[in-house]
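ok so I'm stuck.
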Amino acid sequence: MIGYTSVGTNDLSRAAGFYDELLGAFGAQRVFEMPDFIVWAVSENTPAFSVHIPIDGKAASVGNGTMIALSGSSRAQVDEVYKKAIDLGAVSEGAPGQRHENGFYAAYFRDPDGNKLNVHFMG
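replied:
not stuck anymore, here's the structure
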């Protein structure tokens, strides 16, 4: 059902470097690029992730309660992506770990612009 998600940035170059590395861990690459935004996806017809400079010309800001959740293929991938995010300058919002009895294993972090992301695995 999700076509794509977007977060804002005040520094597209910095965001590009962060997400090239982070989303590369899922096998994603840039699929579309304009001067004010970049889109990554695993393939052309899969959900995508994009980073945009706000079109209204105002500074990008973080949505309170807004979070993008990235689906990992294993607990090991959750650990790997979380570590990569931190190494790339993200700030931890919760180290990898079991969150619920239903098998939800997740980690949380904020990208260099302060956008909150989660990477998780069910199982």
